[in-house]
Amino acid sequence: MITATESRQVQAPDVAAVAPSERKVVDEVSGWLRVLDDGTVDRTWTGPPEALPLMQPVPPYAEPRDGHTLHDLPGEPNLRVYLPEVAGPGRLPVILQFHGGGFCISHPSWLMYHHFYARLACALPAVVVAVQLPWAPERRLPAHIDTGVDALRRLRSIALSDAGALDDPAAELLRTAADFSRVFLIGDSSGGNLVHLVAARVGEDGEDSWAPLRVAGGIPIHPGFVRATRSKSELEARPDSVFFTLDMLDKFLALALPEGATKDHPFTCPMGPHAAPLESVPLPPMLVAVGDHDLIRDTNLEYCDALRAAGKEVEVLINRGMSHSFYLNKYAVDMDPATGERAQELVDAIKSFVARH
After folding, report:
1. Domain ranges of the chain
2. Which pick of 45, 192, 325, 329 has the fewest CB atoms within 10 Å?
3. What's the pLDDT tens digit per position in 69-123?
């Protein structure tokens, strides 16, 4: 298990340089982070200690485990690559993953992401590439969108490389295994926002600009779409868990959105009045997963309805009885039959969607 001290060292190494008595907290998201008056951010986890194992970083491994290998590709941005062991010469689709965390926290190496995306890589099978995103408030939106686009540029550069020309052996493995004409964007929570935003940015450039890479589809899972005015069901909802409340979401977005922006900003409400009409937004086919008991279910469904009304190709999967990002809780997936069943339904839906596109 990762300790609180290790968590502090991994997540906020700059804070320890200043004595606590000399700093004051000017903003806080309970359990997750504290913004200090000297501009530093302390991301030491202060919530229930039983949650720490899910935040434990999983190191890479070149020797196969459970049917796949795991590689880190340092660069701009840093990438983490899951390569399934598959017999035969065919190339595999690419799943480009954007982690959640309200644009302010988390890391793709955490166990909560690892267990699901390792499973997804083997089940499809597909090459899964996880992107290390920047953190707000140090880097506010649109930095995260820019990083997502940069990740696609990096994949395109690998695709265009000649055999043996890449310095990193893992990059060469990726070049050999991946079908870069079938890249699918997937994201959890705020990462789901990035699926829409990055796909739209790429779509504006046109397919020819990205060849041989092509974004073939998007899979926002419980995307963090909100409105400034809450719906009645949102106001009456119980908290999902200690990890997700509406108050936490509001505070994360206040730290992540451009200065002075409200939750009706297109980054968090792409179907709202301040966003470009969805009819004019070039998007690939979408599979949107919506948690039946998610606190932001209503705005997720509103997004899906808006896509349909705009003539976009969209499929909706309702995770019955499930709350926000339920599938990332490895222990619930492993030990609770209902959670395990819904997680398998999610994997099956993603596999079907990728196979059809």
Report:
1. 1-56, 63-355
2. 45
3. 999 999 999 999 999 998 777 899 999 999 999 999 999 999 999 999 999 999 9
Active-site residue (options: 106, 109, 189, 190):
189
- The percent helix, strand, coil of the chain (3-state, each to 5) is 40, 20, 40
- Beta bridge partners of residue 72, listed in sequence order: 80
Surface-to-core class of residue 9, CB atoms within 10 Å of its CB (0-12 exposed, 13-18 middle, 19+ buried):
middle
| Residue recorded with tokens 């709202």 | 272
Whether CATH 3.40.50.880 fits 63-355 = no
In order, the DSSP letters of 287-309 are: EEEEETT-TTHHHHHHHHHHHHH
Write the DSSP symbol of residue 51. Answer: G
28, HSE (Cβ side, Cα atoms, 13 Å): 9
Active site residue 72: no
- Count of alpha carbons within 13 Å of 50, Cβ hemisphere only? 6
CB-based contact 80:114 (threshold 8 Å): no
Best CA proximity match to 133, nearest among 125, 124, 121, 142? 142
Catalytic residue among 294, 298, 323, 325: 294
Q: Contact 115/104 with Cβ under 8 angstroms?
A: no
| CB contact at 8 A, 300 and 290 | yes
Which structure tokens are listed for 199? 């796909």
Question: pLDDT tens, 140-181?
Answer: 999 999 999 999 999 999 999 998 888 899 999 999 999 999
Helix (H) or strand (E) holding 342: helix 337-355
Residue 292 tokens read as: 């039946």
| pLDDT tens digits, 266-283 | 999 999 999 999 999 999
Q: Among this protein's residues, is 305 annotated catalytic?
A: no
Treating both helix axes as pointing N-terminal to C-terminal, what angle do 337-355 and 111-123 enclose, rounded to 10 degrees? Answer: 50
Q: Which amino acid makes up residue 307?
A: L
